Amino acid sequence: GYFPALNSYPSLLGDMLATRINCVGFTWASNPASTELQIVMTDWLVDMLSLPATFRHDHPDGCGGGVIQSSVSESTMLALLAARTRALTQLRGDVSQDVGNDALLNSRLVGYTSDQAHSSVLKVSLMSLVRLRSLPTDEFSLRGETLRRAVDEDRAQG
């Protein structure tokens, strides 16, 4: 896959700032400055993307917030593991399902991606034991109808 050299002006500034802070940002206790910076940055993203206010850290009625990850691969891994955990929880709770062990339930999960996806998507699906279907794109876009048809096919097959 293609990995950029990360030598743009904004990237250099970001790297200089991270080097200047020079700390481990695991938790607020280990590094309050990094945690506060992450909160401010993710709230800025909420505003820039015109997301609902419930996505903000400080919204009283929401479960807002977010985490800035180190790489696309790490972000993809966390997203797929979270989706898998949620799907398994739903399958276990659905009384109409023949609930077996997690390995059996996990074998029923399918992830969908486009044929234009980053190489980490396939690697992450292999590591998380989620079957992945690569769907064709139309002018480099995955169309909703293509995804809907694939989901319907998989549901029909159980």
Detailed description of the structure:
A two-stranded parallel ribbon has the order 1-2. Strand 1 (110-114), helix 5 (119-127) and strand 2 (131-135) form a beta-alpha-beta unit. The protein has 6 helices and 2 strands. The protein folds into 2 domains: 9-55, no CATH class; 72-156, no CATH class. It is mainly α and 158 residues long. The protein has helices spanning 9-21, 32-48, 72-93, 102-106, 119-127, 144-156; strands at residues 110-114, 131-135. The two termini are 33 Å apart. Helix content is 50%, strand content 6%. The model has no long low-confidence stretch (mean pLDDT 86).
Defining traits:
single chain; 158 residues; mainly alpha; 2 domains; two-stranded parallel sheet; 2 strands; 50% helix; globular; pyridoxal phosphate
Q: What is shown here, in short?
A:
The chain has 158 residues and is mainly α.
State the domain count.
2
Apparent shape? globular
Helix/strand structural class? mainly alpha
Which oligomeric form is depicted? Answer: single chain
N-to-C order of helices and strands: HHHHEHEH
| Separation of the first and last Cα atoms | 33 Å
| Spatial strand sequence of the major β-sheet | 1-2
* Biggest sheet layout: 2 strands, parallel
Q: Spans of 5+ residues with little confidence (pLDDT < 50)?
A: none
Rg computed from alpha carbons, rounded to a whole number of angstroms: 19 Å
Count of separate DSSP helical elements: 6
Q: Let me know the number of strands.
A: 2
Strand content: 5-15%
**What proportion of the residues is helical, as a percent range?**
40-55%
Q: Mean pLDDT, rounded to whole units? A: 86
InterPro entries: Aromatic_deC (IPR010977), PyrdxlP-dep_de-COase (IPR002129), PyrdxlP-dep_Trfase (IPR015424), PyrdxlP-dep_Trfase_major (IPR015421)
GO molecular function: histidine decarboxylase activity; pyridoxal phosphate binding
Protein name: Histidine decarboxylase
Subunit structure: Homodimer.
